[in-house]
């Protein structure tokens, strides 16, 4: 299975990054540096804070280069 280098997941969400849209404003790294980095690889680490904070930051992305989708939770039988 091929892994897209522009997709990052945790148990709740998958974050996608479109480098063609990115304005390189650095808003994500400045405002949520524990998740988004401009100096280390991988530059997105979704395990470093709560999913809600990540979603809030993605929604502030000025270019729309960052997006997310929530994972479906399996129903207990």
Task: Tell me what you see in this structure.
This protein is α+β, with helices and mostly antiparallel strands and 77 residues long. The protein has a single domain, classed as Alpha-Beta Plaits, CATH 3.30.70. It has 2 helices and 3 strands, in the order ββααβ. A 3-stranded antiparallel beta sheet has the order 1-2-3, with helices on one face. A hairpin with a 3-residue loop joins β1 and β2. The model has no long low-confidence stretch (mean pLDDT 89).
Please specify the SSE layout and strand pairing:
Blueprint: E1 7-9, E2 13-17, H1 27-31, H2 51-59, E3 66-70
Antiparallel strand pairs: 1-2, 2-3
SSE order, one letter for each helix or strand = EEHHE
Please give the radius of gyration in angstroms: 13 Å
- What top-tier CATH class fits best? Alpha Beta
Provide the spatial order of strands within the biggest beta sheet.
Answer: 1-2-3
Q: Span between N and C termini?
A: 29 Å
Residue windows where pLDDT falls under 50 for at least 5 positions: none
Structural class: alpha+beta
Please count the helical segments.
Answer: 2
Count of the separate structural domains: 1
Main sheet specs? 3 strands, antiparallel
Q: How many strands?
A: 3
Q: Which architecture per CATH?
A: 2-Layer Sandwich
Q: And the CATH topology? A: Alpha-Beta Plaits
What proportion of the residues form beta strands (DSSP E)? 15-25%
Q: Give average pLDDT, whole number.
A: 89
Percent helix, as a range, is: 10-25%
């Amino acid at each position: 299975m091929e892994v897209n280098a522009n997709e990052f997941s945790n148990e709740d969400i998958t974050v996608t990054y479109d480098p063609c849209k990115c304005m390189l404003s650095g808003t994500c790294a400045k405002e949520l540096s524990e998740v988004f980095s401009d100096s280390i690889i991988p530059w997105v680490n979704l395990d470093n804070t709560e999913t809600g904070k990540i979603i809030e930051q993605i929604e502030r992305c000025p270019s729309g280069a960052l997006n997310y989708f929530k994972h479906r939770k399996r129903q207990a039988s």
